Every structure is written in structure tokens, then in C-alpha cells.
Amino acid sequence: MKVHLPNSAFLGNINAFLKLIDTSNPDVLEITSNNKWISVHPVVLCIVASLGLEVRSRKKEASIQCEKFTATSKHYFERMGLFSFLQLDSEMEITKHESAGRFIPLTQIIDSPSLLRFIEDMIPLLHLEEKNVEPIKYIISELVRNVLEHSESKNGAIVSAQYYIKSNTIRIGIVDSGVGISKTIRKSHIAPTDLDAIRLALTPGITGTTSREGGTDYNAGAGLFFTKSIAKINRDFFVLYSGNTLYKLLREKNKDKVILYSDPLDDKHTKDAGLPHWLGTVVGIDIDLTETEEFVTLLDGIRKIYTTSVRERKKAKYKKPTFIWTK
Amino acid sequence: MDKIILFPLVGSFAENKDKARDIRINEIIPILEKGQNLILDFENIDSITQSFAHALISDLIRNYGIDVLDRISFANCNKTVSKILEIVVDYMQ
User: Fold this and answer.
1) Biggest alpha carbon distance in chain B?
2) Comparing A3-12, A36-45, A188-197, A204-213, which segment has the lowest mean pLDDT?
3) What is the phi/psi pair of residue A314, to 5°?
4) Mean predicted confidence (pLDDT) in A176-197
5) For residue B19, what are the contacts with CB-CB under 8 A and spacing of at least 6?
6) What range defines the domain where residue B59 resides?
């Protein structure tokens, strides 16, 4: 496998980075990087870390070849824990700064207790106002639980986040190398393509665990819809990549009134179905703290569309007896 | 009326749906089966996830019907908690 860390890879331009991932030869991972400056979204780090874990879990003496970083920003990757995650010696001597208010290094979450610990530890690191804490805790909990329950990933979820002062934005990445959305959704629904599966996964009330409206006693099929809606109401990017397809929710312009839709294809978005096949699921989200709506306001919007959507689908499936006269 | 105080069981951020399911099966259902009413007390709980709320109450509505809500009171819910409970109750009807 090969991955190249470019000069820039954020949610707006992540397609170019993803296109260059080479998933052939899964026993070896070669990492190269831009030699001048590298500035990337935490989800990119999660992807590289996940590939590294995948290689290491396949072979005891795994081969991860990482070209020596020469970019001026190379220390960022040391501080975010990329090299220790990959069990590589970065040969970098860095002075560790106080991390409060800045970033959450790459973290592997493999079970429910480690998720709760992560959420508790994460909040003081980000030094956020209460109104900003709630949606972030919410998103991390729901998405990581999705991974732990549905992905069948032996490496759990890889999570990382970074606060960007200039844009006053938190950027979060959550990645797994499990079975992917298509396999999960197809257990209960018809989804010929990865895009069909992603579309269903983002639709409120649809879960891979049952074809029944409203889900099971344990799964409602709401986690991804809530997350996408939080991004949409706050006019932020949200990306979901699984199989060969990337779905990207685009940022709404500030002057536009935000309308939530149950069908993700009705949202302002782009899709790319020609990407290298990612076995698991990649989620990236930006949360602009300047624009963050109060969480309860946000829930009002979600409640309306969620309930309407589930009811309409129930109504569409409602059957009446057919009466005919044969004489 | 029986009361289940949730905070000691789930903490201030109620997100663990395994715990929610355990509470439903081992605490809520036995009370309802005895024909008694109950109070679910959310005091000191700052926030819950929809997954948690769903695992806690959706199956009660499905199995006992929506009238089960006449037998359950949700006490000391802040705005976030009550909104999320309302979402689950809404889509289960």
C-alpha cells in the first residue's frame, strides 16, 4: 500500500489525497510526503494510522516504510502521534508544548470503556465553551459506537481532532478498517452500489440491523443522520468515505436558510465513486465554533425532519386489503 | 411509584446504550410487568445521545404501545435530555 501526505488535504480538497492511496500489496505500507510543507485534516492522519495498523495486524514483521519527513511542518506529525502509532522512530527531537486547546492526538478506541475515557479526556484538552462541547461529545460517541457495533474492525476506531485558531474550527476524523457501509447496510436493504449504501446509511431511521422502520430495540439508524445534520445546520463540511465512494456535504453559504433533508442527495453535496476501495469507513467533520448553533436549537430541526421522514416511509409501506368482485 | 435514578448508573453523559438496554430489561420492564408506574430520574445528567434514549425506551413503546408513556414519568430532564427523549417518542409513534 502507498500513501502520500500532500501539501494540503482538508475536507474541501480531500479527493486528491484519497485518489493517490494505493491499496495493492497489503503487507507493505510506503509513506511519502511533500518535502516543503504538509498541512492536513486529522482525518488524513487517521487514514494513514489505520493503514499502518492494518499492515501491522497482517504480519508480525510488518513493513512500514516511511520516507524521512523534510517539511518544515514535520513536527506536527510527531506531536499528533503518527510515528509512535506506526511504531516508527521519527528521529525528531521536539519540545512538547501544552496541548490544551489545540489537538487530540491519534487515539485507538477498541471498546466502550475506552470510548468513555476518551470523551472525558478529550473535553479538557479542547478547552471549549459548554455550547460547543455538546455536539462534539455527541458526534464522537455516536460515530465511534457505530464503529464498535457494526464495523467488525479488529482495530476499533482511530480518532483524532484539532482546533484551528485562525478559522475557530474543530476538525475531527474517525476511521475504521472494518467491513464498510455497503456490507453492513446490505444485511437488511438492497444497495447495489456503495453510493446507494451510503445514501441509506445517512437516511434517518435506516439501519443495517433490520429492514423495519424505526430500527430494532438497540439500533435506530440515526447516528450518521444526526452527525450530518449537525454539520449542515452549522454550515460545515462532512465527508463519508466507504468502498469506492466519497460523499461530501458542502458548506452552505451564510445567507442561505438551512433546510434539513432526509435524503442526503437532496443536500448540497458532491460524490465521487471512482476512488480507491476503502474497506472500512472514513468520517471527517468540521465544526466552526463561531457559527455553532445551540445544541437544543439544532435538535429541534433534527426532530422535525427525522419524525416526518420515518412517518412518511411507514405510511408508504402501509398496506390496505384489496377488495375485488369476481361476479 | 418506583423511581430509577439514572445518574449513578450512566454518569453525566448518558451515551452507553448497553447500559440503557440493561436498565430497560432489568429495571424498567420488571416494574411495568408488576403493573406499577415509574419515574425515570435524569437529575445530574447533562446530556444523552439518541442511541441511549432509543435503547432505553423505544422497545417499551413498541411492546406496550404508546400508552406506556402514561405509566412513565421523566423527571428532572434538562432541555437537551427532554428534546432527545421527544425525538425518540415522536418517531416511535
Assistant:
1) 31
2) A204-213
3) -65, -40
4) 95
5) B9, B10, B52
6) 2-91
**CA of B16 to nearest chain A CA: how many angstroms apart?**
7
Chain A hits for B47, CB-CB cut-off 8 Å, are 134, 137-138, 295
Which of A217, A219, A296 shows the shortest C-beta gap to B83? Answer: A296
Tell whether A11 is covered by a domain.
no
CB contact under 8 A, B83 and A219: no
List the grid coordinates of A197: 449504501
The mean of the pLDDT values for chain A is 89
Contact B46, B80 (CB under 8 A): yes
* Band of residue A60 on the pLDDT scale cut at 50, 70, 90: low
Distance from CA of B54 to the nearest CA of A (A): 7
Q: Which of A60-69, A182-191, B29-38 has the lowest mean pLDDT?
A: A60-69
Least reliable range by pLDDT among A188-197, A255-264, B73-82: A255-264
In terms of residue numbers, what domain contains A272? 101-317
Cell of A262: 432526509
pLDDT score for A131: 76
Q: Which residues contact B10 (CB under 8 A, 6 or more apart)?
A: B16, B19, B20, B23, B45, B52
C-alpha to C-alpha distance for A42 and A48, rounded to whole angstroms: 10
Name the residue of chain A whose CA is nearest to B79's CA: A296
Instruction: Give how many domains chain B has, as a whole number.
Output: 1
Mean pLDDT of A288-299: 82
Q: What is the pLDDT of residue A92?
A: 64
Give burial (CB, 10 Å; 0-12/13-18/19+) of A222: buried
Which ipTM did the prediction report? 0.92
A278–chain B Cβ distance below 8 A for any pair: no
In-domain check, residue A210: yes
